[in-house]
């Protein structure tokens, strides 16, 4: 697929950039987005943004140089082909002992059957559960169904456990914990779940904040108190039959 055309100057208004950011700018000027670059180097798009904001990306400079040369000199535009070139010049960093450093795996994965699961805890929830956004966006793109489980203090719910008004008759999807919190699930393959595209729109309207989007849905549908705080969030997807 040929790169999309761009009419803006990616580096306008910025100060001195590190080499990774400069190379990324040149790739953007050639028509590639930050998301394209992330796909080519097999990393999350947030890392490419950190080339600019946190001075990261030194380890990817050799790969970015080769990618840029392939685009400018070799006329290569296909993302998988560029990714193959990048892979030959991307090496896992090592720890002080010389061992290969661990790389955090992606928070979400959707299988060919449409099954996907993403979970976040208190720290990620406080920052908007952004790791779940790609799962919801991809589920929307594939036309999948979606369900989610939340945990909050028992007093945060408006309906008693197992209420048909809250989570219709699915008592097995209510888990009470010793710390006075309770997990409740909303949606399942048996009940049809939710339209992932609808939730993706909600997340977009919330500026990418998945926590806020889920919290708003729970308030809108009369399930929780406005001051209730989500402590745990899990999203599941599947392909409708």
Describe it for me?
The structure is a single chain. The protein is α+β, with helices and mostly antiparallel strands. Helices cover 35% and strands 13% of the residues. The chain contains 9 helices and 6 strands. It has helices at residues 19-29, 34-41, 45-53, 61-72, 79-87, 122-126, 133-141, 196-205, 210-220; strands at 116-120, 145-153, 174-176, 181-186, 194-195, 232-238. Helix 2 crosses helix 5, helix 4 (61-72) crosses helix 5 and helix 8 crosses helix 9. The radius of gyration is 22 Å and the shape is elongated. Residues 5-10 have low confidence and may be disordered.
Notable features of this structure?
six-stranded antiparallel sheet, 241 residues, 9 helices
Topology:
Layout (H helix, E strand, L loop, with lengths): L18 H11 L4 H8 L3 H9 L7 H12 L6 H9 L28 E5 L1 H5 L6 H9 L3 E9 L20 E3 L4 E6 L7 E2 H10 L4 H11 L11 E7 L3
Antiparallel strand pairs: 1-6, 2-4, 2-5, 2-6, 3-4
Summarize, please.
The chain is α+β, with helices and mostly antiparallel strands and 241 residues long.
Overall geometry comes to: elongated
What is the CA-CA span between the terminal residues?
Answer: 31 Å
Percent of residues in beta strands: 5-15%
Rg of Cα set: 22 Å
Give the low-pLDDT segments. Answer: 5-10
How many strands appear in the DSSP assignment?
6
The biggest beta sheet reads: 6 strands, antiparallel
Task: Provide the helix percentage.
Answer: 25-40%
Output the helix-strand order: HHHHHEHHEEEEHHE
Note the total helix count. Answer: 9
């Amino acid at each position: 697929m040929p790169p999309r055309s761009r009419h803006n100057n990616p580096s306008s208004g910025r100060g001195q950039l590190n080499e990774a950011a400069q190379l990324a700018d040149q790739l953007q000027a050639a028509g590639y987005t930050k998301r394209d670059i992330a796909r080519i180097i097999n990393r999350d798009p947030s890392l490419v943004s950190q080339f600019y904001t946190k001075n990261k990306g030194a380890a990817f400079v050799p790969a970015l140089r080769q990618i840029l040369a392939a685009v400018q000199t070799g006329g290569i535009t296909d993302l998988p082909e560029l990714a193959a070139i990048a892979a030959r010049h991307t090496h896992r960093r090592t720890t002080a002992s010389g061992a290969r450093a661990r790389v955090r795996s992606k928070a979400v994965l959707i299988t060919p059957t449409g099954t996907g699961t993403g979970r976040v805890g208190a720290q990620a929830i406080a920052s908007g559960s952004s790791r779940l956004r790609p799962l919801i966006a991809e589920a929307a793109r594939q036309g999948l169904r979606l369900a989610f489980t939340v945990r909050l203090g028992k007093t945060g719910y408006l309906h008693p456990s197992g209420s048909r008004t809250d989570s219709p008759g699915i008592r097995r999807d209510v888990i009470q914990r010793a710390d006075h919190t309770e997990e409740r699930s909303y949606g399942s393959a048996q009940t049809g779940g939710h339209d992932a595209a609808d939730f993706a729109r909600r997340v977009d309207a919330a500026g990418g904040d998945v926590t806020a989007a889920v919290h708003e849905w729970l308030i809108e549908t009369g399930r929780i108190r406005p001051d209730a705080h989500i402590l745990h969030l899990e999203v599941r997807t599947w392909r409708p039959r």
